[in-house]
Amino acid sequence: MKEHFQLKETIVTIVADESDHIEVAKEAIHEHRTQLETHINKDPYFRMTLEPYDCEEDVPEVVKRLVRAGNTMGIGPMSAVAGTLSSLAVEAMLDAGATHAMVDNGGDIALINDRDVVMGVYAGNSPIRDLGFILEPSDSIRGVCTSSGTVGPSISFGSADAAIVFSDDVSLADSAATALANATDIGHDGVESAFDVVSGVERISGAVVIQGEHLGMWGNVPRITRADVRYECITKG
User: Fold this and answer.
1) Nearest-10 crossing angle of helices 81-95, 61-73
2) What is the Cα–Cα distance from 50 to 47, expressed in whole angstroms?
3) pLDDT in tens, 11-67
């Protein structure tokens, strides 16, 4: 089952075998987004900063994860917001008994899967098309997060059409994808050097960058396959 769900700026596609698990995901997104909004109302700087952030110990879990991920990558905490909400939603689905669940928050994806999943890549105007990854079954939650300097509304200072990071820490994958996209310049050398920002970070298993006609990979990347990437299936507003 698949459902498109929007709560203010949060726009997700939720996949599960049971409708009850989809409802659980929606409730989790609402709960954690509300907690995040409350924190931002107390400290508007949290939302604006593009640099590492210090927080108190008694902040909500969603805030802790944003701060930890952003600080690890040396950037602001909101760089991890989409992946963090995806992860918290899938965790709630797992607690409710789901063995196959996915939340795609604008290309920042958390999933647990009991069967193969083919995940397509959309890289805007890049000539590299119809590319996908085969994610084999896993009994733990994983993150596949994407950032871009040419696609979507997110802030990026680089030239990546798609910067993709794989990690079992979904919040970290989201921040790392942002940092990877920021570091991507034009051409072969611009792609190759970008991986320096993720290569020494613990728990990042692999990464991919697409920039124009150039494609680079680092680390342990899932098997590549051809995929029918349809624009209408992309999670967007």
Assistant:
1) 130
2) 9
3) 999 999 999 999 999 999 999 999 999 999 999 999 999 999 998 889 999 999 999
In sequence order, the β-bridge partners of residue 146 are 164
Cα–Cα distance, 217 to 112 (Å, whole number)? 23
Residue 183: strand, helix, or coil:
helix
Beta carbons within 8 Å of 24's beta carbon, 6+ residues apart: 89, 92, 93, 95, 96, 98
Q: Which residues pair with 12 in a beta bridge?
A: 5
At the topology level of CATH, where does 2-233 sit? T-fold (3.10.520)
Half-sphere exposure at residue 60, Cβ-oriented, CA atoms within 13 angstroms: 16
Check: CB of residue 175 under 8 Å from CB of residue 80: yes
Q: Are 135 and 121 in contact (CB under 8 A)?
A: no
Q: The whole model's pTM is what?
A: 0.94
- H or E segment and range at residue 70: helix 61-73
β-partners of residue 82 are: none
Domain positions in the chain are: 2-233
